[in-house]
User: Which sequence fits this backbone?
């Protein structure tokens, strides 16, 4: 059994005669009353002790505050006062992100009843075992009725309604508390060899509940406020498990993984760094968990702009992995992919692609390949190829990734939906860049349905999908007024969602830029200059966001400058437009492959500005030089090539 003063292995029904002891070493505030009295111990004592830990984590105080009260409750049960309901005992905490009143409301009702049942004086009125206790916690997380509540029709109706709405904060709080209690219970239980199997079984179950905070696999997927509660767990894990570095490292790795899947990579970095340090304290030789913590730390550093440090961690993890399992292991392939991803995050795709190709070859060599690993490699390689200006090659990899995930029945539903949604989102972008707009619209809609099903709250992929669907609507040859209104609302929804999320490098820049292009297109069929002015404003916002994320001289920022310059030309401000497109072209032609769509965008913008100031011959020559590489990379029929030809025709016309 699990008691936090002395742990013992007992038969669930108390049949063992060796469980009674006259010398009771225990922590009285955590011990069940019958244990304090020296009676036969059963798994009901486990339930009680776990209930005390969960009560303390949720409220900040213990249900029984000191030794004397614990003894009085055990030996004078009839005269003992009832335990205070958890919702009335919420302690103040300046570091807590929500108010005490809100926390009290959160605990009121089902949580009160669950905890009071676990802590009941009479064993017969307590949960029969840890599994029953855990089942009620599961039911609570899923919004279903709990056995601790008296059944009634109004209660079940309320639960049905709330289940549809989702109490995110409540679920997150329970996940945090139960996860931390699992690790406390596990760490303290390892004092005695005899009860180790039971300790591991109980802690593994509770750890699984904690991992349910991962929006891709958990029963709770609306993640808007979950991070606040994970922050509480982060502090408690650090402080309460200081003497148990391996236990602490395991929970820090879980926290870091959940932070990443909640798109809070910045929050993942310090907790993963702490996990690596904890493993260093607890292990003489790095094991699989220590290597995984280092891998995720390196990837997170790269994703937050610290490429050099991230690569250093990833290379160290790879060296440890090669010593542990050798070059053929799946975990080794995952590290190759992670190094490629780190380079791709920094737009160093030429360096990324060989690592990604090596990882993909390794995953394909396994028969049958593991679906999630194979799809991840396909998706990452396809995205890097697209960024490198090789979109035609990218399409096949991205389409295969989406199809692999769609058919992977062995994966949890949330993982399958979210990852397939990511892949189809990426595929729609590449198809759009290739001018295959009808196919792109189909993939974007499929991605949107998958992501909406996987995530009920704000999410970066959902924001990107909203923007893509809006852009594709705006790119129709003759969008109806209804389609334009819908596209405008999708753009606005994307921008609003992105502003509610942690800042993602380039996210708002891309969205404002796509919105500006749509407005510029719409302005050509509208009288007056109001829509064109809105387009100039959108490009200005995009430029400001890009400079904040990437600096003044990044090629992506220069592409936005080119868009702004072209729009200024269309507004009759040719000299201002040329002042934007000139520097943009000077930098992009040095930094970006000649056939990349970005090159076409900037060439067209700069040539348009040159024509507007009377330098048509220069514009025609510039466009003619750029055309062969674009045709080779994109195709003769690509819209960008057609737009370039229109610029050449304008430049050579009498007016040009």
Assistant:
């Amino acid at each position: 059994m699990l008691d936090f003063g002395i742990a013992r292995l007992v038969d669930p029904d108390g049949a063992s005669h060796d469980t009674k002891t006259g010398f009771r070493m225990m922590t009285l505030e955590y011990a069940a009353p019958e244990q304090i009295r020296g009676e036969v111990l059963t798994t009901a004592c486990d339930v009680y002790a776990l209930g005390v830990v969960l009560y303390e984590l949720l409220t900040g105080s213990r249900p029984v505050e000191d030794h004397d009260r614990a003894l009085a409750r055990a030996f004078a049960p009839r005269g003992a006062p009832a335990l205070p309901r958890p919702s009335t005992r919420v302690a103040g905490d300046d570091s807590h992100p929500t108010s005490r009143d809100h926390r009290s409301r959160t605990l009121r009702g089902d949580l009160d009843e669950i905890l009071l049942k676990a802590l009941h004086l009479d064993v017969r009125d307590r949960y029969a075992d840890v599994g029953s206790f855990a089942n009620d916690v599961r039911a609570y997380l899923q919004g279903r009725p709990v056995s601790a509540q008296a059944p009634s029709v109004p209660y079940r109706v309320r639960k049905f309604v709330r289940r549809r709405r989702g109490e995110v904060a409540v679920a997150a709080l329970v996940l945090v508390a139960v996860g931390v209690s699992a690790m406390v219970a596990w760490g303290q239980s390892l004092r005695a060899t005899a009860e180790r199997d039971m300790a591991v079984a109980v802690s593994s179950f509770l750890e699984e509940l904690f991992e349910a905070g991962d929006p891709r696999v958990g029963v709770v997927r609306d993640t808007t406020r979950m991070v606040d509660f994970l922050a509480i767990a982060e502090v408690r894990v650090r402080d309460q498990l200081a003497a148990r570095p391996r236990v602490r490292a395991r929970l820090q790795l879980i926290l870091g993984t959940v932070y990443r899947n909640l798109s809070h990579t910045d929050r993942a970095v310090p907790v993963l760094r702490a996990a690596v340090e904890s493993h260093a304290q607890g292990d003489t030789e790095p094991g699989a968990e220590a290597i995984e913590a280092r891998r995720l730390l390196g990837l997170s550093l790269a994703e937050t702009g610290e490429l050099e440090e991230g690569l250093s961690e990833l290379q160290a993890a790879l060296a440890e992995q090669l010593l542990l399992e050798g070059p053929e292991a799946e975990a080794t392939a995952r590290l190759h992919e992670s190094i490629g991803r780190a380079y791709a995050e920094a737009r160093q795709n030429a360096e990324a692609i060989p690592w990604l190709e090596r990882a993909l070859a390794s995953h394909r060599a396994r028969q049958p390949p593991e679906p999630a690993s194979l799809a991840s490699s396909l998706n990452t390689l396809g995205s890097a190829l697209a960024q490198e200006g090789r979109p035609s090659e990218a399409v096949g990899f991205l389409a295969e990734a989406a199809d692999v995930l769609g058919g992977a029945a062995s994966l949890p539903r949330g993982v399958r939906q979210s990852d397939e949604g990511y892949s189809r989102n990426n595929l729609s972008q590449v198809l759009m860049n290739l001018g295959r707009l009808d196919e792109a619209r189909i993939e974007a809609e499929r991605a949107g349905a998958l992501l909406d099903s996987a995530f009920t709250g704000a999410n970066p992929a959902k924001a990107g999908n909203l923007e893509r669907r809006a852009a594709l609507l705006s790119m129709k040859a003759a969008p109806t007024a209804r389609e334009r209104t819908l596209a405008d609302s999708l753009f606005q929804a994307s921008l609003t969602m992105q502003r509610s999320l942690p800042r993602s490098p380039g996210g708002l820049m891309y969205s404002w830029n796509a919105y500006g292009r749509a407005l510029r297109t719409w302005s050509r069929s509208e009288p007056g200059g109001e829509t064109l002015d809105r387009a100039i404003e959108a490009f200005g916002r995009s430029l400001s966001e890009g400079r904040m994320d990437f600096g003044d001289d990044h090629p992506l920022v220069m592409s936005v400058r080119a868009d702004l310059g072209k729009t200024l030309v269309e507004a009759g401000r040719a000299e201002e437009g040329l002042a934007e497109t000139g520097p943009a072209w000077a930098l992009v032609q040095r930094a970006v492959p000649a056939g990349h769509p970005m090159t076409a965008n900037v060439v067209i913008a700069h040539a348009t500005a040159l024509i507007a100031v009377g330098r048509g011959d220069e514009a025609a020559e510039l466009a003619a030089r750029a055309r062969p590489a674009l045709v080779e990379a994109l195709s003769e029929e690509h819209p960008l090539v057609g737009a370039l030809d229109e610029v050449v025709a304008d430049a050579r016309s009498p007016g040009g």
In short: DSSP finds 29 helices and no strands in the chain. Residues 523 and 530 are 8 Å apart (CA to CA). The chain has a mean pLDDT of 77. The first helix runs from residue 33 to 36.
